[in-house]
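Deliverable D4.2, example record:
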Amino acid sequence: MSKTKRRRMLETLAYGSDNDAIAMMFMLGKPGFQPGDLDGLDLSRVTAVSHGKDGSVSVSFVDRYRALQALENEGTKNPTSEAIYAALRKSCQEMEMKDEPEDDADEETV
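Output generated by the structure prediction step:
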């Protein structure tokens, strides 16, 4: 696979729309559904589809964060992906700081 094609694929996985997958969820529950009804839908971000016993439909998607990491590793200098990745990293760091227990008992007073 060429580097350009790989980059386009990663960009689709990172920034692509899930609208067609949502439309597919509604199509699957309709009477008279035919597999050909899915032709033309962009389902590139879909990784799994499952049906519950109660008739529910569950759809799993590609992890956008991992796609952004892969884009970064490709050497892509996309300002949008860099901004999103930086914001995600900052958010994760803030969450880690909140999760750390405060241990004042080990501090000495001078």
